[in-house]
Design brief:
- The protein has a domain at 2-36 and 80-143.
- Helix content is 49%, strand content 10%.
- It has 5 helices and 3 strands; from the N terminus they run αβααββαα.
- α1 (2-13) crosses α5 (125-143).
- The longest helix is centred in the N-terminal third of the chain and has 20 residues, at 38-57.
- The structure holds zinc ion.
- Zinc ion binds at residues 20, 22-23, 25, 82-83, 86.
- Residues 20, 22-23, 25, 82-83, 86 line the site of zinc ion (ZN).
């Protein structure tokens, strides 16, 4: 019972703090984003097709397990977390302002939007979500 109460408190007060992968400082609302470059998505997709052709011609994609392994094939296009001022990329990006991605609820809402994008699974979005989730869970446990 007590544990359930603690979790609820944790989830009400949870707020995920993003850290810039360039300068390693916290990113305040309105000053940065979580983004992925379209060029990286295209490269990831091309590499996946190439790998599939290779594996098929080598007869290595036969069983359901083979395909399951293949579908989590890396490398994927990486979501990066940066201050606007730290981001020197001029390539077209898909970006989400950090203030719109501060809680599990935000993540669920963005995921239900992104899941309609044919390119989502070429990116490491689920990994990002898992990292955020474990960090928030750790926070709730510490505060509880
Ligand atoms: Zn920065």
């Amino acid at each position: 019972m007590a544990e359930t109460g603690q979790r609820r408190v944790g989830s009400l007060s949870e707020r995920f703090d993003w850290i810039c992968d360039r300068c390693r400082e916290l990113i305040a609302d309105g000053t940065g984003s979580v983004s992925v470059a379209y060029a990286d998505i295209q490269r990831a997709r091309a590499e996946r097709w190439q790998a599939m052709e290779l594996l098929l011609s080598a007869g290595m994609l036969r069983t359901e397990d083979d395909w399951a392994d293949f579908l989590v094939y890396k490398p994927q296009a990486r979501w990066t977390v940066r201050h606007r001022a730290c981001d020197r990329r001029s390539r077209p990006l898909y970006w989400i302002p950090v203030e719109q991605l501060r809680s599990r609820r935000d993540f669920i809402s963005w995921t239900s939007h992104l899941v309609r994008k044919p390119w989502l699974l070429e990116t490491d979005w689920l990994l990002l979500m898992a990292e955020m989730n474990s960090q928030l869970t750790g926070m709730a446990a510490r505060h509880g």
